[in-house]
């Protein structure tokens, strides 16, 4: 599923009409009817429905929705919230069709407040994706009225007042219960300041050809179908060497469990062989948790690894470093050594990211793939911006960093964004608040290490890792746990059900 900006969506409509020859009225008809069918699944014949129609495509969709509902014997009225001279083009044509089919359009001046107050269902088709700045009257007052009512609110494409793109933090918008997105999700669906306004959401197709999306956007949402297409299947004569030999370096006296969780997650996710490297006391504490791994004891001073020359990096297919490593000067030297000497993909997480802020020239010089897995605080630190600023524009910031330093960025969050060095971005939809707990990131790194060593592109591998990680949490909350008691180690154990679910779903 593709993700678009407002400009990309407008360009897609334009190309569909100008280059392919799809008629604008037909696209509007497709959109309105597709939305109407979704609406019918949420309402009943006894509901009193008020469609609030603005100008442009959003208002035109509203007229088609109203006509379709009217055709199916729903009690529907249209409140036109703009003057007649603002309803032009395809929207005007569909307004006329609606009226000729027996529909009534009530001007804002004569019926607004009472119609809104009396409705059981409000369909918000007032403002589309092109809004810039603060909403003006009468929209501002109507939005306040809608939000104050107890009606069920359905927004068409985007809740009125919500910006489609990044950067929005302060705005006045409809709080929808359900949003039916047209064509493709907009960026604001996935942003912390805007996502909640959408409520529950679905996407409907209006007939735009796939090649148009591929031409104009490099962002998408990674879905179960993508996992099933790309996740390598085990072959009859496979052996452990076919699925990668990985090295995981981490752990210190205060955080031995971080290494343990990454090692377990990597093996549970399908890695053939995993070596855990840490100090002897850490290994003695964790080895019993995962007897299938091998371990390498490294020298340490006061519980922190201090001798990088002991590590042979040449015999591994991928390396992960940083989980529970510590923030000492000696551990920075270890991270630097791995960045400079490893001749395979490396994944940097946790304290490794803290050190990376001083090692950006070295990461930029690598000729083999590099992956970083920051949470927003770590990403903001690497960029030198506030977390608040980062969360306003995570797509942009992740892309700028990935392309500048030629790394894969896995920016963790409710909707984790995976970005390639070429700027291609994939959003992961799985996961729940149960993952907001210590150790979840260590588990993700272990899964990512296993995926990177399988036969798939790195972007696919990282997208699959995020999906599996989140899906494990989702299945566990559905069947065994709550979002409160879920632990990172539970997520490791839940990987079994993820693979079983994927394989059984065809």
Structure in words:
One of its GO terms (molecular function) is ATP binding. Its cofactor is K(+); Mg(2+). One of its GO terms (biological process) is nicotinamide nucleotide metabolic process. Keywords: ATP-binding, Isomerase, Lyase, Metal-binding, Multifunctional enzyme, NAD, NADP, Nucleotide-binding, Potassium. It catalyses: (6R)-NADHX = (6S)-NADHX; (6S)-NADHX + ADP = AMP + phosphate + NADH + H(+); (6S)-NADPHX + ADP = AMP + phosphate + NADPH + H(+); (6R)-NADPHX = (6S)-NADPHX. The model has no long low-confidence stretch (mean pLDDT 94). The protein has 19 helices and 19 strands. Helix 8 crosses helix 18. The protein is an alpha/beta fold and 506 residues long. The protein has two domains: 211 residues, YjeF N-terminal domain (Rossmann fold, 3-Layer(aba) Sandwich); 267 residues, UDP-N-acetylmuramoyl-L-alanine:D-glutamate ligase (3-Layer(aba) Sandwich), CATH 3.40.1190.20. The longest helix is centred in the last third of the chain and has 22 residues. The protein starts with 5 loop residues before the first helix and ends with a helix. Strand 14, helix 11 and strand 15 form a beta-alpha-beta unit. The strands form three sheets. Strands 8-19-18-17-16-15-14-9-10-11 form a ten-stranded mixed β-sheet, with helices on both faces. A seven-stranded parallel β-sheet has the order 3-2-1-4-5-6-7, sandwiched between helices. It is elongated and about 80 Å long. 43% of the residues lie in helices and 16% in strands.
């Amino acid at each position: 599923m593709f993700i678009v900006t407002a400009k990309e969506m407008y360009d897609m409509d334009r190309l569909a009409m100008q280059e392919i020859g799809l008629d604008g009225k037909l696209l509007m008809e497709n959109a309105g009817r597709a939305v109407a069918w979704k609406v019918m699944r949420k309402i009943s014949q006894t509901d009193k429905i008020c469609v609030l129609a603005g100008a442009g495509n959003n208002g035109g969709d509203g007229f088609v929705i109203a006509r379709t509902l009217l055709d199916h014997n729903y009690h529907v009225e249209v409140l036109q919230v703009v003057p007649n001279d603002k309803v032009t083009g395809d929207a005007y044509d569909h307004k006329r069709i609606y009226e000729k089919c027996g529909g009534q359009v009530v001007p804002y001046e004569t019926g607004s407040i009472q119609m809104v107050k009396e409705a059981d269902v409000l369909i918000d088709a007032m403002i589309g994706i092109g809004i810039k700045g603060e909403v003006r009257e009468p929209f501002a007052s109507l939005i306040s009225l809608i939000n104050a009512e107890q009606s069920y609110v359905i927004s068409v494409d985007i809740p009125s007042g919500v910006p489609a793109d990044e950067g929005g933090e302060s705005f006045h918008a409809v709080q929808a219960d359900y949003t039916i997105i047209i064509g493709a999700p907009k960026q604001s669906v996935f942003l912390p300041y805007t996502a909640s306004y959408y409520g529950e959401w679905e996407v409907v197709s209006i007939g735009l050809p796939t090649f148009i999306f591929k031409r104009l956007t490099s962002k998408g949402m990674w879905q179960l179908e993508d996992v099933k297409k790309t996740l390598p299947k085990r072959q009859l004569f496979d052996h452990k060497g076919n699925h990668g030999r990985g090295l995981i370096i981490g752990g210190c006296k205060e955080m031995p469990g971080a290494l343990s969780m990454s090692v377990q997650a990597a093996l549970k996710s399908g890695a053939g062989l995993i070596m855990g490297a840490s100090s002897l006391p850490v290994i003695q504490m964790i080895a019993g948790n995962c007897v299938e791994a091998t371990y390498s004891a490294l020298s340490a001073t006061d519980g922190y690894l201090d001798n990088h020359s002991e590590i042979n990096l040449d015999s591994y297919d991928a390396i992960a470093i940083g989980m529970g490593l510590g923030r000492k000067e000696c551990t920075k030297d270890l991270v630097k050594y791995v960045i400079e000497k490893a001749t395979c993909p490396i994944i940097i997480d946790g304290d490794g990211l803290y050190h990376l802020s001083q090692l950006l020239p070295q990461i930029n010089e690598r000729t083999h793939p590099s992956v970083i897995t920051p949470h927003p605080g770590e990403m903001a630190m690497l960029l030198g911006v506030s977390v608040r600023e980062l969360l306003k524009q995570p797509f942009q910031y992740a892309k700028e960093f990935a392309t500048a330093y030629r790394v894969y960025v896995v920016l963790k969050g409710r909707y984790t964004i995976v970005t390639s060095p070429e700027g291609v971005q994939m959003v992961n939809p799985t996961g729940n608040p149960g993952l907001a707990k210590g150790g979840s990131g260590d588990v993700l790194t272990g899964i990512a290490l296993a995926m990177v060593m399988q036969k798939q592109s790195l972007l696919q591998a990282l997208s699959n890792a995020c999906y599996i990680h989140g899906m494990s949490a989702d299945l566990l909350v559905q069947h065994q746990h709550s979002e409160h008691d879920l632990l990172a180690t539970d997520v490791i154990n839940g990987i079994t059900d993820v693979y079983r679910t994927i394989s059984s779903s065809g």
